[in-house]
Write a structure and sequence with these properties.
This protein is of the alpha+beta class. The protein has a domain of 107 residues: GMP Synthetase, Chain A, domain 3 (2-Layer Sandwich). It has four helices and five strands, in the order αβββαββαα. A three-stranded antiparallel sheet has the order 1-2-3, with no helix packed on it. It has a two-stranded antiparallel ribbon with strand order 4-5. Helix 1 packs across helix 2, helix 2 crosses helix 3 and helix 2 packs across helix 4. The longest helix has 23 residues.
């Protein structure tokens, strides 16, 4: 879709949401994951699309599929690119380059529930999370592009969920194995 088509679509949605804010509230499509044996997991979208994850061989996996942690980073990077492309289109900026790399640093001890010498648990999630953005647009000042990136990431749903540590509700159903 061309930049002006995206901008038009965004203006229509924004106008609707300003008139009827309640139209913006919706349940997101769930991701349903099923154990496929070993450490393989198949996750499906409501539209039928699916992907498979696995773990590295040193954890007992086959090491031939992305890990769930990588998919988290992929979602973060993908959402960042999408939101930045939307922001650029809304401002009439034709991007020539747009790439986001989501990087993290984790401590594998956390996956095993291991503790530090002081007894505190090692976090299972990443200790560091970083987005590296490469962006370029002919005739657009670097300061304007930096401001566009910063603004777009304040409005990126996945970036915000990671940044604001969204509370996670856990609901459990135990089924009869017989």
């Amino acid at each position: 879709m061309a930049t002006h088509d995206i901008a038009s679509a965004l203006r229509r949605v924004e106008a609707t949401l300003k008139r009827r804010p309640q139209a913006g509230l919706h349940d997101d499509a769930p991701a349903t994951a099923h154990w496929a044996g070993g450490l393989r997991v198949v996750t499906r979208h409501a539209d039928g699309s699916e992907f498979t994850t696995d773990m590295p061989a040193e954890f007992g996996g086959r090491d031939d599929r992305p890990t769930p942690g990588w998919l988290f980073r992929a979602g973060l990077a993908s959402c960042a690119v999408t939101r930045l492309a939307m922001a650029a289109a809304a401002e009439g900026i034709a991007l020539d380059t747009l790439e986001v790399r989501a990087c993290s640093r984790s401590d594998a001890r956390g996956v095993f529930g291991l503790a530090e010498p002081d007894g505190s648990l090692v976090p299972a999630g990443p200790a560091e999370l970083r987005l590296e953005v490469r962006v370029g647009a002919a005739g657009v000042a670097p300061e304007r592009l930096r401001a566009l990136v910063e603004h777009s990431q304040r409005c990126s749903p996945v970036s915000q969920a990671a940044r604001d540590a969204l509370p996670l509700e856990l609901r459990i159903e135990v089924v009869d194995a017989g």
